[in-house]
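Changelog note: in this version the structure field was regenerated for every chain. One regenerated record is shown below for reference.
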Amino acid sequence: MIKFFRTIRRKLLLAGKTGQYLKYAIGEIVLVVIGILIALQINNWNETSKLKKEEVVYLKRLKLDLKKDTIYYNTSIDRANLLIDRNTLFLQKIYDEQRSIDEGKYLMNIPLWDSEYLTIQDNTFRELVSSGKLNIISNPGLKVAVVDFYRKIEVQENYMKEFNEYSRELMANYVSTHPGTIKQTRKPDELDKILNASMFRLEDFKFLNNPSDSQFQALEDIVLVYKNKHEIFVDQFQELKNVSKDLLNQIDQELNEK
């Protein structure tokens, strides 16, 4: 093609047709510019198409993370409600008279001392942030919603961590001050020994029949803290579940439009 244009230019010059040569040269330049613009447009289109496909991949990954988190929220809510129920039962029965070591042992094994932590699937979001690809989410409203959601997660995560540290510190202080009363373990074989072996002493439970005793009041306060803590956690898990559901709907709508 270049050789063809060169031949035409040479013929025009040899024929002395300078005016036609200039017009032709200008036309040739215009054609080259148009060709470059078309090539750039095609390249931009290809790049845009590539980014759109990558955006869809990330949105689908975010959607999968949020669905897994929904299951996690439901499980965490159920577990927290179990703790609330058990600790509420303990607070009701602690004022009953404990007439034997077996009754005292049964009562002291009612409370649960778990600490729920907020652990979600946020690898996709972290990857978007660390790789600088957060702007690949082309819908400004959706991008803001995604960022706001994970900021809320971070705030709730820190709050739960601090509350857990506070409650566990209370528990540690109680156990060190009144050893022998609370038996804790997460190992099934050790728990079986705690429930069935003679690991409790009768004197460990005398305080249970004296509500004015400082040990009685300290234990009641700790159980109240754990109960109230998980009531707050249930509300937080439910809120995150609702916000997550709304974000899922926004992502679905965006994917459908694409």
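Spot check on this record: The chain is about 75% helix and 0% strand. The CA atoms of residues 212 and 218 lie 10 Å apart.
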